[in-house]
């Protein structure tokens, strides 16, 4: 099948004909974090995944962003080098003007990431260079919790930008709105493509998932078994520090990785299997597949060159305790990991009491300052 890529997928480029006039205003969106069950690890071209992934959308972990905009009096002006050491960044900030505040504090350290994002989305939403922006953002989870805010953060911002496009072009369909929001979010951070909708989102083309595409996330199209409704995710904060290796660097290490091709094939097969499991409610098979995915992700990190380890001793202590608890009780609790040391403890709603008791009794001791976050599957982003 022919793949549409961002380079020839012109249907998402903003067309200014018949646009309404939009002088100033603001939009606010709340977008959730997500936790992948089949992992995205490895990308090509402009933020396209090497394999399809699927995630649970979360509920309590979210970013709320307000985008204030004001039309510029003068159009964007691109001037010659001004002697700045970071000319490219200066240039970007002349074409796209923004000021970013996290919890009321100006954050110039995010300018580079924002600049990269604006440049990538610039062709698709050309109107953004006509405005000055103030971005006010807040995460429901603490900044230094080791929980990546890039997925929810990029999704919330992408949705605000789409609200602007919708104000300029009110005839836009809902499908177009959400697909393009996911596509823009993806250009900020791959996993952000899965932070627009709920409860389960697939990103990346897969033969058994109708409408799936590398360009944006789509809702899991099949009926999900009762066992997976309101699934619980308690996030154990094992290490709240900065990651030693960023996801972007990790993804790049999949180029030339000795196991890359096999891994991409396996992820594809695992998505087929998980699709069946989600429909038939087989919790034991779910546990097996999800834990295997988490450990494979970390195995890829340990076998890349340079190699690295993001798990900490307490990550392993928790995994060991979960395995023992499962053996003793027959519970369906399991773990997954993202690119860090924190552990996501996943369990069915009907085991809530049993597992919460286990977590407070045995697992909390392995968390930094005994801190953890109770979350569950959510319904997707919301306009405020
Ligand atoms: C391990 O989406 O953070 O969480 O596209 O470079 O921003 P970039 O990477 P990012 O990678 C997340 C990888 C993961 C697995 C997953 O969420 O699927």
Verbal overview:
With 384 residues, this protein is an alpha+beta fold. The protein has 2 domains: 211 residues, Ribosomal Protein S5, domain 2 (2-Layer Sandwich); 148 residues, Alpha-Beta Plaits (2-Layer Sandwich), CATH 3.30.70.890. Helices cover 34% and strands 21% of the residues. The chain is built from 9 helices and 14 strands. The strands form 3 sheets. Strands 1, 4, 5, 6, 7, 8, 9 and 14 form an 8-stranded mixed sheet that branches. Helix 3 packs across helix 4 and helix 6 runs antiparallel to helix 7. The two termini are 39 Å apart. The N terminus is likely disordered.
The beta-strand count equals 14
* CATH fold title of the largest domain: Ribosomal Protein S5, domain 2
Order of helices and strands: EEEEHEEHEHHEEEHHHHEEHEE
Proportion of residues in helical segments: 25-40%
Q: How large, in whole angstroms, is the Cα Rg?
A: 21 Å
CATH-scheme architecture of the largest domain: 2-Layer Sandwich
Terminal Cα separation, in Å?
Answer: 39 Å
CATH class of the largest domain: Alpha Beta
Low-confidence stretches: 1-8
- Count up the domains: 2
Compute the number of helices.
9
- Assign the structural class, choosing from mainly alpha, mainly beta, alpha/beta, alpha+beta, or little secondary structure: alpha+beta
Task: Report on the biggest sheet.
Answer: 8 strands, mixed
Bound molecules: ligand DP6
Mean pLDDT: 92
Strand content: 15-25%
Shape: globular
